[in-house]
Design brief:
Elements: H1 5-13, E1 17-19, E2 32-35, E3 39-43, E4 56-60, E5 66-68, E6 74-77, E7 82-84, E8 87-93, H2 95-98, E9 102-103, E10 116-117, E11 120-125, E12 129-131, E13 136-144, H3 174-179
Antiparallel strand pairs: 1-7, 2-13, 3-4, 3-6, 5-12, 6-11, 7-10, 8-13, 9-11
């Protein structure tokens, strides 16, 4: 079941959901809007290798905006740090963002219970578009979880390699090959 906006606020007040700088104006009927930070990463290698860390370069989004181009994967992040002790978070683009041809994630819109950090965004655009820091780019919503679980990053679950991030993080898939 998806939590309503009223329930998100209640769970926030009870400490079961945490969102930095929580502001009721960002609360929707069943989600909470998250904003785009002022930096992006782009890969610099022509061919990416799953078994290796891939080089990136950092781009600052100035106040007057930055034009994003089709055919480039931009890694961004949310300004807000989120975590949930009891609920599985999901991230989607806002419909107003989608209607401009901006995708904020390729496949990674699902979060695990216990994920604790900012969200890395996998941004692609259909046509050139100017984006601005601080724009409400996506919305987080929360599902209830049935049954016992081990929160993300805790012993016996998984590596938690993306947990506690406060920066944009390129793929660390290469670590899966190291563990194999």
């Amino acid at each position: 079941m998806i939590l309503s906006g009223i329930e998100i606020k209640k769970q926030y007040e009870q400490g079961n959901i945490f969102i930095t700088d929580f502001d009721e104006k960002n609360l929707g009927p069943n989600s909470y809007d998250l904003t785009l930070h002022d930096e992006l990463l782009v890969y610099t290698d022509k061919v990416l290798d799953m078994k290796q860390p891939n080089a990136t370069k950092r781009i600052k989004i100035p106040a007057e905006g930055l034009v994003l181009e089709p055919g480039i994967l931009y890694l961004g992040r949310t300004t807000e740090w989120t975590t949930s002790k009891k609920h599985a978070p999901m991230l989607e683009g806002r419909s107003s963002i989608g209607r401009l041809g901006i995708f904020i994630h390729v496949t990674a819109g699902f979060g695990d219970v216990g994920y604790d950090g900012t969200w890395t965004l996998e941004i692609q655009v259909i046509h050139p578009i100017r984006v601005y820091p601080g724009v409400r780019i996506g919305q987080i919503y929360f599902h209830t979880v049935e049954g016992e679980f081990i929160p993300y990053g805790e012993t016996g679950n998984n590596s938690g390699k993306y947990n506690k991030l406060n920066d944009i993080k390129a793929s660390m898939l290469y670590k899966d090959f190291e563990e194999a």
